[in-house]
Amino acid sequence: LAQAPRALPAYHHAAFSRTMAIKGLKKKVAVKGKKALLKYTVDCQQPADDNIIEPKDLEKFFKDRIKVEGKTGNLGDKVTVSREKSKIHVSAEAPF
């Protein structure tokens, strides 16, 4: 006996099957000629208010750990990391 496929429950929607985004992380993509410019913003306001992390420490972590061409500490002019109060901005030319 062949059974008809079951319908998915009403709560099972395409939005629920995607991975959850990280709160405070925003991504913007601007096309600049043939190279795409990726911009990330990390808002550290709440963790900073709760004394969990200092934005300057996270900025230093990003500068030390982001790899460019397979090497850390090699940001050059392809990747920039900057801080504005409790927000950290990372801009990168793709591919990097």
Describe the structure.
It is a single chain. By secondary structure, the chain is α+β, with helices and mostly antiparallel strands. It has three helices and six strands. The chain has helices spanning 14-17, 45-49, 55-65, and strands at residues 25-32, 35-43, 67-68, 71-72, 79-84, 87-94. Strands 1-2-6-5 form a four-stranded antiparallel β-sheet, covered by helices on one side. A two-stranded antiparallel sheet has the order 3-4. The radius of gyration is 20 Å and the shape is globular. The model is unreliable at 12-19 (pLDDT under 50).
Structural class, from secondary structure content? Answer: alpha+beta
Outline: globular
Specify the biggest β-sheet. Answer: 4 strands, antiparallel
Uncertain residue segments: 12-19
**Overall pLDDT metric:** 78
The portion of residues assigned to helices is: 10-25%
Percent of residues in beta strands: 35-45%
Q: In angstroms, what is the radius of gyration?
A: 20 Å
Distance between the termini: 55 Å
Query: SSE string, helix = H, strand = E?
Result: HEEHHEEEE
Strand order, largest beta sheet = 1-2-6-5
> Oligomeric status of the shown chains?
single chain
- Kindly state the number of beta strands: 6
Helical region count? 3
